[in-house]
């Protein structure tokens, strides 16, 4: 099987940009992204594609880096020069697991989807980005990953390092796991006041999204504070993550990479200062 067998091309002809249905599809995603930085393409995978992707995730689930620690929303260390109530000094228990990208083979379902002709262009056009400001994440541990989470797991409030995050919902937990986000609150600066309101539960700017297996989500997580609610039940939640950035060659910071994947590679140290903006990581 190839990427064309995994993607629902009858419904979403991402390889035929000259079709009117392609333009309509892109325009709808753009409208949703403009509204709150999040868009969902329902049923993006075929039944066979979903089955293959779940099987692949299950086959390497034992390679996931599982961590149980305290993190702030920026994944940085405590800074005692800041006020005690600053968001960067608010730490939360995090229990989660990521299967690093180097566990997914070129001929596997997830990379076949990611490498399918037209996929990158479809994502770029939906995000309304110029070619010179749209690149695949160059991180060999993080360009194509799966977040896998089980009973009691979740992911506390955080910002993403990369500007564009594209996810495929593969398998839901039996209960919990809703995606919650405060849209675009960091678009024009750190916006510490609103960030603080989200963290203390007083913000009126929080949206809740329930994704179904096979749904494709585009999300501007660099600017929108977000979290995954805790899960319950025996079935793990699997979500594939494809990442894009605005600056060519960008990788995760060494500190964050260690937290998420349990190891760093030489490339993370070499490119530690390569960023497209000045936001706290």
Automatic annotation (TrEMBL):
Gene3D superfamilies: q2cbj1_9rhob like domain (2.60.120.620). Transmembrane segments: none annotated. The keyword Transmembrane helix does not apply. It holds the Pfam family HalD. Residues 140-246 form the Fe2OG dioxygenase domain. Keywords: Iron, Metal-binding, Oxidoreductase. InterPro entries: BesD/HalB-like, Oxoglu/Fe-dep_dioxygenase_dom. Belongs to the iron/ascorbate-dependent oxidoreductase family. This is Fe2OG dioxygenase domain-containing protein. It comes from Pseudohalocynthiibacter aestuariivivens.
